[in-house]
């Protein structure tokens, strides 16, 4: 697909939101941000998703992560829709800003255009996309779902924990399939055994494989 992807810097756009005008890089402020789009206000799956984002906000805040929503509807529509979202998810408040993109320019720059879906006027709409943006304003991970499939917030959280864990250890570790916090991680092949002994004094275990190569090494980290 055209547009920015993993490793690219998110452009420093100035946008209108439910919290007023803001510039992306000022909002990011060298921290982690989840930038996510939804096809349209007052639609069923999106209403459940924004409610879940609000419900998970305490967990995001524990990780010093900000949220930033986006759709092509205007700010007035967003503010009215928020009432529905909060009613559907009792006890949760949508305290994060939602960007308005009525001209449908930002969704193109952010690689958030749905390849198939159109609105009633035949115009392009946002995909159900989500970018996890790192402290350097670069995209670290992207999810892209069709309009028919809502996001799994537990997977978003798991992926975020994986990214932050790797970043904390200077990307010298990675998380294996089905990893979850507390599980062992793998040590990067770029790290020698001697370096691994210094970096991971708690020790590590090398998996024995038919190839005889010692590249699958597990350790526990905080």
Automatic annotation (TrEMBL):
UniProt enzyme class: oxidoreductase
Molecular-function annotations in GO: thioredoxin-dependent peroxiredoxin activity
Active site: 46 (cysteine sulfenic acid (-soh) intermediate)
Coiled coil: none
Domain Thioredoxin: 4-165
EC number in record: 1.11.1.24
GO CC terms of this entry: cytosol; mitochondrion
Keywords assigned by UniProt, alphabetized: Antioxidant, Oxidoreductase, Peroxidase, Redox-active center
PROSITE patterns, per database record: THIOREDOXIN_2
GO biological process, one term: cell redox homeostasis
Reaction(s) this enzyme catalyzes, per UniProt: a hydroperoxide + [thioredoxin]-dithiol = an alcohol + [thioredoxin]-disulfide + H2O
Domain of life, per lineage: Eukaryota
Role description: Thiol-specific peroxidase that catalyzes the reduction of hydrogen peroxide and organic hydroperoxides to water and alcohols, respectively. Seems to contribute to the inhibition of germination during stress.
Family: Belongs to the peroxiredoxin family. Prx6 subfamily.
PANTHER family named among the record's database cross-references: MCG48959-RELATED, PEROXIREDOXIN-6
Protein name per UniProt: Peroxiredoxin
Origin species: Corchorus capsularis (Jute)
């Amino acid at each position: 697909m055209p547009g920015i992807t993993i490793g690219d810097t998110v452009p420093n756009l100035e946008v209108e939101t439910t919290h007023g005008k803001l510039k992306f890089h000022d909002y990011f402020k060298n921290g982690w941000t989840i930038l996510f789009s939804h096809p349209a206000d007052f639609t069923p799956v999106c209403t459940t998703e924004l409610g879940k984002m609000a419900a998970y906000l305490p967990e995001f805040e524990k990780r010093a992560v900000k949220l930033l929503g986006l759709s092509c509807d205007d700010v007035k529509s967003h503010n009215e829709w928020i009432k529905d979202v909060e009613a559907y998810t009792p006890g949760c408040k949508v305290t994060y800003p939602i960007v308005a993109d009525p001209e449908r320019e930002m969704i193109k720059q952010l690689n958030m255009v749905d390849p198939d879906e159109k609105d009633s006027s035949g115009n392009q709409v946002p995909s159900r996309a989500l970018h996890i943006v790192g402290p350097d304003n670069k995209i670290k991970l992207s999810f892209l779902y069709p309009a028919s499939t809502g996001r799994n917030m537990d997977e978003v959280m798991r992926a975020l924990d994986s990214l932050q864990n790797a970043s904390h250890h200077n990307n010298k570790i990675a998380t294996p399939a089905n990893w979850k916090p507390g599980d062992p991680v793998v040590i990067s092949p770029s790290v020698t055994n001697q370096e691994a002994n210094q970096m991971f004094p708690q020790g590590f275990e090398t998996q024995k494989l038919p190839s005889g190569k010692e590249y699958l090494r597990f350790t526990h980290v905080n």
